[in-house]
Amino acid sequence: MALRGLKVIELAGLAPAPFCGMILSDFGATVTRIDKPDTYTDKDSLSRGKRSLSLDLKKTAAAHIITKLCSTADVLIDPYRPGVLEKYNLDPSVLCKANPALIFARMTGFGQNGPFAKMAGHDINYIAISGVLSMIGGKDKPQAPINLLGDFAGGGLICALGICLALLERHKSGKGQVIDANMVAGSAYVSSFLWTTKYANIPIWLGPRGTNVLDGGTHFYNTYRTKDGKFMSVGAIETKFYSLLCKGLGVDPEKCPQFDNWDENIEMFSKIFLTKTQEEWCKIFDLTDACVAPVLPMEEAHHHPHNSCKGTFICSDEKVVPSPAPTLSRTPAAVKLTEPLNGQHSIEILREEGFSSEEIKKYIDDKVVHALNVKSSL
């Protein structure tokens, strides 16, 4: 696996930081989550393949343990607001001094500085001030795309990219660095196409939200309900694809101009799609260049022939989850679906770091460390 041999310390958080750690774990890194005692390991269920060391950060000795772990680690993922790790004496000035090769990835909403840096927020707030949310939704109001854009695309994925870039640079310099991965900047960067097309005078954004080519304003880039209550997606932007779309629908392109009468054409397409089931439309459009595909529910997506052929999902008796992407030809990812229990590996990890049985027992007795199966492990 591409990241085999890398040692990552992930301070437990929610959504973006666990996703970042999961990406690194899927591609081979050894990821140790520092969990808080008496809490679920990961409410997002993004802890697969990781190990769990449960520490009470409010105890002074916990900082000593984390510092020792980081002295031999390659990466630390910090999910807290600015100032939190500084309070525990675990900020970059301390940990990077102890390990100059450490890559210190700080995953926040608003960033490490600025007026909003220490303010609470969630995905919807971060993409709101990035300017991206204003572009998403219907005519009436903006609508956040769940929490995918801020937390996961602009957050965890961008953070993982930053870590890989820092690892690559470290091969040249031998030095680590601090990464400011924040969801405002990340979601703005992910949406660069919105800005570049706007200023390049490309005719995609012609009017208010919900009236444009890619945001539901056109009949040739939209979704339509079928006779059986399911949906089809249509994305026939290019003229040659639009012609094939019209052919499949039984519509004369001359009487249904692509770049005119959008509202009327949406109404007409809506009526046509209601005349057949999703399966019937798939028989018409599958394997054509009309840019039409079924909208698949999450519980059915893994059954689709294309996804099944490509191994897009990993299926077990308990769950179905997306496979890691992209696919590497020589060093592909290898997913471990098991998720650790809180403190499951505490003793094992401390022993690997050179702590004696007496030290470990004292940490547990002092409630610095939480561990499962203490008697059988010590």
Number of strands: 12
- The number of helical segments is 16
**What percent of residues are in strands?**
5-15%
| Intertermini distance | 33 Å
The coarse silhouette is elongated
Biggest pleated-sheet summary? 7 strands, mixed
| Overall average residue pLDDT | 94
Strands side by side in the biggest sheet = 6-5-4-1-2-3-12
Q: What labels would you give this structure?
A:
378 residues; alpha/beta; three-stranded antiparallel beta sheet; 16 helices; 14% strand
3D architecture notes:
By secondary structure, this protein is α/β, with parallel strands linked by helices. The protein has 16 helices and 12 strands. It has helices spanning 16-26, 60-71, 84-87, 92-98, 123-129, 148-173, 183-190, 192-199, 239-249, 262-273, 278-285, 298-301, 305-310, 346-352, 357-365, 374-377; strands spanning 7-11, 30-35, 51-55, 75-78, 103-108, 178-182, 221-225, 231-235, 292-294, 313-315, 320-322, 369-370. The strands form 3 sheets. It has a 7-stranded mixed sheet with strand order 6-5-4-1-2-3-12, with helices on both faces. A 3-stranded antiparallel sheet has the order 7-8-9, with helices on one face. A two-stranded antiparallel sheet has the order 10-11. A hairpin with a 4-residue loop joins strand 10 (313-315) and strand 11. Helix 5 packs across helix 6 (148-173) and helix 6 (148-173) crosses helix 7 (183-190). The chain is elongated and about 80 Å long.
